[in-house]
Amino acid sequence: MASLDPRVNRLPAIAESVSPKAPLDQFGTFEVFVQPKEGKPFQHEGIVHAPNLEMAYVLAKEAFTRRFTCTTLYVVDTREVFASPMTEGEKNSYDFIEDVPAEGGAKVSFEIYHLTKRGKQHMHVGSVKAGSPREAMVLAKVKFNTSKVVYNVWAIESDKIRFTSEEEKELWLTLPEKKFRDASDYKGGDKLKDFLERQN
Amino acid sequence: MSIALKELLYKMADDQLILGHRNSEWTGMGPLLEEDIAFSSMAQDKVGQSLALYTLLNQLGESDPDTIAFTRNANQFHNCVLVELPNQEYDFSLIRHFLFDTAEALRFEMLTRSSYEPLAQLATKIRGELRYHTLHANTWIKQLGSATPESIGRLQKSLDYAIPYALGIFEASPHEDDLIKSGVFEGEQKLKEKWMAKVESIITQTSLHLPDWNLAQPLFGGRQGKHSEHLQPLLDEMSEVFKIDPTAEW
Amino acid sequence: MYGGGNTFEGIKTDSIALEDPIKLAEFEARIARGEKIEPSDWMPQLYRKQLIRMIEQHAHSEIIGALPEGTWITRAPGFKRKMSLMAKVQDEVGHGQLLYSAAETLGKPREQMIEDLINGKSKYSNIFNYPTFTWADCCFISWLVDAGAIVNQLANAKGSYGPYCRALDRICAEESFHLKYGHHCVIYLASGTAKQRQMFQEALNRWWPPMMHFFGPSDKISAHTEVLMRWKVKMGTNDDMRNQFLDMYVPKIWELGFTIPDPNLKKNPETGRWDYTEPDWEEFKRVINGDGPCNKERLEVRRIAEERGRWVREALKTSKTAYVTPLA
User: How far is C282 from chain A (nearest CA, A)?
Assistant: First the structure.
């Protein structure tokens, strides 16, 4: 292939594949949550596909936090996210969560998230200790259901999450200095003004 | 002292620039989308780190970073040969990333204690970037180094090929003693020992094996400006637009 | 970077009659109220199908769009441009990743979309089938193709599908750097040496016709999209988008003293809209159907990238995780 791109000219020739890709030949799905600033809640940002939780963490870091600000992020397997029914208008999703009797046995921590506007992100609101995701939803209803309508609730068992460790927080140390990824670093105004003055 | 310090800064900066340039070639062509993004970020970090080092050199009286980076010929570059080798397949690019970045992270970690204050400050500042690079490299090597016969075979072959070049990272400077005595840098030998231990600690968690260090022959020369046939074409390509008019602002 | 245009050709609205009328009415009322549709909501088949098609094309355009600018990634002049261009091209890949995820919420896995791209089954923005001969072509894309894409994306971000809106909010925020960077590059060429000015003028001459094609065929000849407008899948007509772009950027190009290669281009004081020579829609169709200067290379590069990465993906596959549709 004679290309204008020197990189393309260096590509090896590769024969047409004989075995087409199986339709579902892909990795698991992991949900990514980011804390944009210290003191702000974590918010859902999107997904990565990865073969395991650790790889998902490594890949999510640059996919979701190479721009703007970030203090920390975490990831979890999509299958670990328990969701309430999606509502709209004045209907609160919590109203569709039926009370279940408190379950015995070991209580574990669940992180709780709210969607308060359709089309926006799920935001972290806090955690509860419960024996099951269902119970976590019920406890969240008591703890976090205020006057504001919630359209969707997520509950994720904390132990299933790959958090950022305290030492790893330095991963974002130089992010604010990467100005070359920021529109504010491209001020052409003076140059343009000089140019226009020279024209006149 | 100034000569020794500049030599150290030049070789580090050249390493970072050339490897950053090589790794950027994968942008848009990586093996999976998320990895494409991650690898590109690390290439950007490397070029950014080289810029920071050239800026230190500029403060010591050398030319401005663009002139240094875009107008020298291959024999004026002090990078190790490892970083200038073509990317080949992703196995080699990953192995090189692992071997080089392990050394780089350790070097900067040592330099946080440098008596040359601006370098110590830089080393402290970029520790988070380096932590990510080694986290990324280690995670990938552990994963692919224990996965399928094909991935293990590919990584092993690339590892065998890369090791002599990787040992070339630690080619001693003629000013080694000065650097050590003045507390600027603890020296290539010490770095190499730390590096071997670190590389071993990761590789032993995989199905890969390292060569006998005593038998491995380092490939030196890069630090003295003696390069493979690959560097000059890389530089010609890198400076193609810049050299249309080196006095122009682009 | 996405221009639209070829997305909705030949849509068949027959299937709407087969939908449950009560659910359809609720769905349409929800959109009319300005509420977003989320993946777990009921939606008409046609809505799902057209959204997948549109978001998928958008994602492909990002991935393929990384190639013409990537052509200059190893040659960017100077540190500042080198780092910026790397970050800019990387963002395009990142946008692809975000958009594929949004399309996946509608039920089509990413690998299947990539497969369809490589096999030529799905389209991407036509403009990336043109070559970047010089650094100035690369600057043209960074500034003006991205500008065109932003016009389109800002409109689409007000659309009805939640996951697409979320992706676009993020993408538009990131694109502000692209636009500023691209304009910065062009200001430097414009105010530089005679050679630099000439480079950009030549790039402008080459890229203006595909830029006019970018927003898709004229409303006079493009397919009927009334239902898609009502469902807020399509947010503006092709001509509206083109006009908005001309309004915002023609003055900026002229300000730099460049000549746009269309003698008929001027703002009509009576209509408030731009007059221009009708773009060659036959060429547009020809290129979209595979016969452009770079179609073959773009897909071939993508195919080689996939094939070279195959062993990596094979090695990483494990039964411990499973593909599931993203939640949001």
Answer: 26
User: Residue A127 pairs with which residues in a beta bridge?
Assistant: A111
Q: If DSSP codes are grouped into helix, strand and coil, which group holds residue A76?
A: strand
Residue C322: inside a domain: no
Residues of C in contact with A28 (CB under 8 A): 320-324
Residue A199 has what pLDDT? 85
Of chain A, the end-to-end C-alpha distance in Å amounts to 48
Q: What are phi and psi of A124, to 5 degrees?
A: -70, 135
Chain C touched by A173 (CB under 8 Å): no
Q: What is the pLDDT of residue B141?
A: 98
The more confident residue out of C237 and C1 is C237
Q: Which of A47, A51, A152 is the closest to C316 by Cβ?
A: A51
Identify which of C51, C28, C29 has the alpha carbon closest to the alpha carbon of residue C39. C51
For residue C227, what is the enclosing H or E element?
Answer: helix C226-230
Beta-carbon contacts of residue A191 (< 8 Å; ≥ 6 apart) = C187, C188, C191
Q: A181 vs C87: CB contact, 8 Å cut-off?
A: yes
* Structure-token pair, residue A131: 């024996």
| DSSP conformation letters of B13-76 | HHHHHHHHHHHHTTTTT-SSHHHHHHHHHHHHHHHHHHHHHHHHHHHTT---HHHHHHH--GGG
Contact residues on chain A for B36, CB-CB shorter than 8 A: none
Element (H, E) at C237: none
Distance CA A66, CA A129 (A): 33
Q: Judge whether C96 lies within some domain.
A: yes
Alpha carbons within 13 angstroms on the beta-carbon side of residue B249 total 10
Nearest residue to A109 (alpha-carbon basis) of A157, A41, A75, A163: A157
Q: CA C128 to CA C130: how far, in whole Å?
A: 5
H-helix or E-strand spanning residue A129: strand A123-130
Q: Say yes or no to pLDDT of B213 above 70.
A: yes
3-class secondary structure per residue, C274-290: EECCCCCHHHHHHHHCC
Which fold would CATH assign to domain B2-244? Ferritin (1.20.1260)
Q: What single letter denotes the amino acid at residue B85?
A: L
Whole-number Å distance between alpha carbons of C164 and A30: 18
User: Do you know the residue count of chain C?
Assistant: 328
Cβ neighbours of B89 in C, within 8 Å: 308
> Does residue C219 sit within a domain?
yes
The residue type at C6: N
Chain C touched by B29 (CB under 8 Å): yes
Which CATH number does the domain housing residue C91 bear? 1.20.1260.10
CB C183 within 8 A of CB A192: no
Written as one letter, the residue type at C182 is G
Q: Please tell me the least confidently modeled range out of A23-32, C90-99, C265-274, C311-320.
A: A23-32
The Cα–Cα gap between B146 and B151 comes to: 8
220-239 of B, contacting C, C-beta below 8 A:
237-239
Give A125's Cβ-side CA count (13 Å radius).
Answer: 24
**Mean local confidence (pLDDT), C7-20:** 77
pLDDT band at C8 (very low <50, low <70, confident <90, very high): low
Average pLDDT value for chain A: 92
Averaged pLDDT score across all residues of chain C = 94
Inter-chain CB proximity A51 and C318 less than 8 Å:
yes
CA C49/CA C113 separation, integer angstroms: 13
| Structural domain of C207 | 14-316
**In-domain check, residue C7:** no
Predicted pLDDT of residue A104: 75
Does pLDDT of C6 surpass 60?
Answer: no
Instruction: Tell me what ipTM this predicted complex has.
Output: 0.97
* Residue type, position A92, single letter: N
Q: What is the DSSP letter of B77?
A: -
Compute the distance between CA of residue C218 and CA of residue C273 in angstroms, rounded to an integer.
Answer: 14
Q: What CA dihedral angle connects B125, B127, B130 and B131, to 10 degrees? A: -140
